[in-house]
Design brief:
mainly alpha; two-stranded parallel ribbon; 2 strands; 48% helix; globular
Length: 138
């Protein structure tokens, strides 16, 4: 587990490196689904690591961005909301306690194999996000 102090582009670079190199070192390709936060810049990898290491991380990535005005589509954000409601005390006194509480929560959630009951259909998405979908002419 990785808990960082801030949400800068350099922190983003360290988190992406952690995902690729530590969490999935044997993977040929890692699909990273992320929103359009300004700190989400792969170029930051070159600020933090050598060009060779940054390039090797980037070559393993497939980045999929959620629509700019559709962050509610991001299931990860739903999970963070559940974590906040179920797994964290109102005020966490320090980083170590935060890590312990998050680890206990996600271990329990993973053990239960909790799934997201996503009820938003493709048809609903085409209505709600019609500007993002191509027109289908029949």
């Amino acid at each position: 587990m990785l808990v960082e102090e801030d949400h800068t582009s350099r922190t983003y670079a360290r988190v992406v490196a952690h995902i690729v190199e530590d969490m999935y070192p044997g993977a040929e390709r890692v699909t990273l689904v992320e929103d359009n936060l300004s700190a989400h810049k792969l170029a930051a990898l070159y600020e933090v690591y050598s060009p060779e290491r940054a390039r090797s991380i980037i070559e393993k990535l497939e980045v999929v961005r959620t629509p700019k005005h559709g962050s509610w589509l991001n299931i990860a954000e739903c999970e963070l909301s559940v974590l906040t409601r179920q797994g964290l005390d109102k005020r966490v006194p320090d980083r170590q306690t935060l890590q312990q509480q998050v680890k206990a929560w996600y271990s329990q959630r993973n053990q239960k194999q909790t799934r997201v009951n996503w009820q938003f259909t493709t048809k609903d998405a085409r209505v709600k996000l019609k500007k993002l979908y191509p027109a289908i002419i029949t």
